[in-house]
């Protein structure tokens, strides 16, 4: 289901698209992303790491809202909070700071199973593997482990068949935890804030992804670059996205997330925007992202 649908330029011999065809923000014809068909069975999950070593670019917001949108389509979704700040846990209504068992214990303690740490969110089909500040110790402790880069991959293995999609919310660094996420993942989604210096770190991120692909996880793909905090009124936002398109071609997704205060508001309410403001354009944007990823073959 990849390729043709997404890069839908006219096939040889076909007429070019009409001038009034809907276009994305860089002027590509906007494909129609159909409603994902219902699933008749579940699993094994495709694992997607939400990754950018810059903080505040929308990784956690994307993890929560993409997860909620996929769950709306009956997908079983696991959010893996892989940031010691615990923002993905909090954002979905779980207070991770009082928990005795989190992903940290699953990673570091023999005998603690991943099932022991899973929590159902208030949203149908959406579970969370929570994290709290304990996870910050793992970065150091993992250094001495055998196969230290694949600890997360092994930890998730028992539940991979129970979900259709597993989303890993990475911390803002390219350290060992992030390398673990990239080793566990099938694909990487890169949220990119539409801001001038946003592109600076991307080359280093792509280099890291390529290293992990070469050495640890040959099947790892970049699923897409997702512009976030896009403001259509500014030339600046449009220029940033145009630069991304120049540099990365169709790795740039068609879906774009606009800048709106509804996202921080939803964070305070500890809900995805699809629950907090279901009719808001921000909710539609994440629903479209979910449909685009399914259409590209990156999610069930
Ligand atoms: N599209 C958006 N428009 C406005 N604010 C946003 C948007 N996406 C995220 N935010 C806000 O920006 C801050 C950082 O987002 P977050 O998802 O936590 O980034 P990261 O996980 O990359 O650090 C949060 O307060 C969040 O609510
Ligand atoms: Mg975050």
From TrEMBL:
Pfam families: AAA_31. May play a role in septum formation. Residues 46-222 form the AAA domain. Residues 1-24 are annotated as: Disordered. Belongs to the ParA family. This is Chromosome partitioning protein. PANTHER family: COBYRINIC ACID AC-DIAMIDE SYNTHASE, P-LOOP CONTAINING NUCLEOSIDE TRIPHOSPHATE HYDROLASE. It comes from the Bacteria. InterPro entries: AAA_dom (IPR025669), DNA_Partitioning_ATPase (IPR050678), P-loop_NTPase (IPR027417). Coiled coil: none annotated.
